[in-house]
Amino acid sequence: MTLKDRKDFPPIAGVIGWPIGHSRSPLMHNHWLAEAGIEGRYVALGIPPEDLEGELKVLIKKGFRGLNVTIPHKSAVRAAMDRLDEAARIIGAVNTIIIEPDGSLEGRNTDAAGFIENLAQARTEWRARSALVLGAGGAARAVVYGLARAGVEEIVIANRTRARAEAIAADLAGLGARVLVAEWETIRERMKGASLLVNTTSLGMTGAPPLTLDLTPLPADALVTDIVYAPLETELLAAARARGLETVDGLGMLIHQARFAFEAWFGTRPAASAELRDALVEDLKRTEKTKG
Ligand code: ATR
After folding, report:
1. Is the pLDDT of residue 288 over 80?
2. In whole angstroms, what is the distance from residue 6 CA to residue 200 CA?
3. What is the mean pLDDT of the chain?
4. Which atom of ligand 1 is the closest one to the Cα of 138?
């Protein structure tokens, strides 16, 4: 009998990364465990790349029910999975591991669903005509997959390094959406037909240069979203608001990807409450201060 089968052993889950830094996942999952009255625990675990395989085995033995996966393990961890869901397979990254009672591992990606849920919660009628996605890193892959699966007809990817955008377009071509690549310098022209603008680059993040764009060409009903959530209002979102455009910040994506992971492990989908969001905003403010 594994520890997990023992009724007196509290369910335990966690997040693995290196360095683990200040992960917000423990705050969210422990909040939901308490809210659901589940006597469990969610912990942050720093695991260097060379120890990943071995440490995973240890965590399985310890009776972990599941794990979130963050930088730099999201791609590497796939090799240890017994199964991958479609999102993890196509995006090429796992952010959620389900550890079955027999010790087998299912890798999922809830980032894409989290991104789409964030838009849907903010605006039920978000327009799914044409999206302009800035950036072509791992986050962009999840965003493009999510948009394609949500039925967006045309997705244009603009990235400083064109080859990375082309790789995403090639890998995600079979999902029904038209995935095109545009030069980084042509973003302004590409805005004209975009009903959704998404920043997936690291520009605008605390400590990084801002993403300064002239948003004039965007249609008046375009939605602008940033997956950066520190700061909560990036220069991009501020510029969009100043232009009278509707905006969605990146904190919701973090919360919603976590809701789907929690549900996979504990069987109940927790709420994205204002109380939790406030706690996260407070936490963001605190770490901003300690950085300053
Ligand atoms: P993640 O996996 O979190 O998406 P990443 O793979 O490091 O992170 O990707 C970062 C993204 O931000 C990339 O699209 C990167 O562009 P390149 O592919 O050309 O590197 C983009 N980015 C970072 N700094 C940038 C800058 N100064 N100007 C334009 N794009 C930038």
Report:
1. no
2. 42
3. 94
4. 2
How far does the centroid of ligand 1 lie from the alpha carbon of residue 167, in Å? 14
Query: What tokens does 92 get?
Result: 């090429």
- 3-state class (DSSP) for residue 247: strand
Beta carbons within 8 Å of 106's beta carbon, 6+ residues apart? 81, 82, 83, 84, 85, 97, 98, 100
Question: Which ligand 1 atom sits nearest the alpha carbon of residue 164?
Answer: 18
- Rounded CA-CA distance 22/253 in Å is 17
Pocket of ligand 1 (CB under 6 A): 135-140, 159-161, 164, 200-203, 209
Q: What is the mean pLDDT of residues 32-37?
A: 97
- Residue among 160, 184, 187, 199 whose CB has most ligand 1 atoms within 8 A, to mutate: 160
- Band of residue 2 on the pLDDT scale cut at 50, 70, 90: low
Predicted TM-score (pTM) of this structure: 0.95
The DSSP secondary structure of 69-84, one letter per residue, reads E-TTSTTGGGGG-SEE
Distance 200 CA to ligand 1 centre (A): 8
The set of catalytic residues is: 74
Q: Mean per-residue pLDDT for 180-199? A: 97
